[in-house]
Amino acid sequence: MPWRWRGGRGGARVRIDTDGGHEHESRWYNGNRNGAIGSVGNGRVVPVRLGAMANTMPAANALRKRQEGGFFAGLRAVLRLVVPVVFLLFTLAGAYLYSDSYVTLFDDNFASSQWRQMPGYWLTWGHVLLAFSFFAIHAANRRYGQAYAVAQIVVAWAIIGALVVAAQTYLGAAMTASPIPPPRLGGAFVFAAILAHLIAAVVFDRMRGIRWWEAPFFGSFWAGATFCFVFYPVAFAGTEEPWINHAIVHFAIMSAMAIVLLFPYWLIRPLVRPLPGFGGY
């Protein structure tokens, strides 16, 4: 059977074999036959399956690129959370460190018989600094959107939980000497804080728009309202504490902080711009 070579596409060579007036073409890669292209003879062409290498190589390359792209996309998403999570942990650490620093500026306005209602009896700077945790969530939400803000909250509180368990396990004796809140008080705080953080993320995302101040203000406002009117009933209902008065006073402070924190939010707007696809100014 006589045959001859001719050039083909994709780095292949085409071998043409002549048999009884019919010509048969086959594609060869690197000296190896990979399948027939077709049969030519008597004015008709009969298609034949292409070689396996010609079919599978592009699909394998595309699959490998998708796998590599998925890995690097996941790694990029994880790295994006580092700064937001550290920022949120920093604000919560500040609120905790000042939880025993009482605000005594207004105690002179109360009679001695109203000592339970004096701010110096129950209000600490930690109550005030808690509003900064909402600001940390707004910054992440502005840049990356609601999904990242929720992930920031979950990861930060998971780290806090892991640290508490580790401290109780390995520093049990030292922990007994430090002030530990009662289980009801600690559980009420964690539950109210996480719920308030999630409310901050959701409200901020819903209020994105042309007026730049709406999202951070209403996010902080409703987050503060959620914390105050969830924490105090859960922690103090049924006790002698005037928790309704405390909740109202704390809510007023949170509302004022929602206005105050608009200034630093306005300052970071040129630095923390929303990614494409997220609104807000």
List the helices and strands and how they pair.
Layout: E1 3-7, E2 13-19, E3 22-29, E4 32-41, E5 44-47, H1 52-80, H2 82-97, H3 119-122, H4 125-129, H5 131-144, H6 146-170, H7 172-177, H8 183-206, H9 214-236, H10 243-260, H11 262-268
Antiparallel strand pairs: 1-2, 2-3, 3-4, 4-5
Helix pairs in contact: 2-5, 2-6, 5-6, 5-8, 5-9, 6-8, 8-9, 9-10
Strand content: 5-15%
SS content category: alpha+beta
Number of strands: 5
**Order of H and E elements:** EEEEEHHHHHHHHHHH
Strand order of the largest sheet: 1-2-3-4-5
Radius of gyration: 34 Å
Global morphology: elongated
Total number of helices: 11
Uncertain spans, ≥5 residues at pLDDT below 50? 35-54
Largest sheet: 5 strands, antiparallel
Helical fraction equals 55-70%
Number of domains: 2
What is the averaged pLDDT score? 81
For the record, give the distance between the C-alpha atoms at the N and C termini, rounded to a whole number.
Answer: 76 Å
How would you describe this structure to a colleague?
- The protein is of the alpha+beta class.
- The protein folds into two domains: 3-67, no CATH class; 81-268, no CATH class.
- Helices cover 61% and strands 12% of the residues.
- The protein has eleven helices and five strands, in the order βββββααααααααααα.
- β4 and β5 (44-47) form a beta hairpin.
- It is elongated, with a radius of gyration of 34 Å.
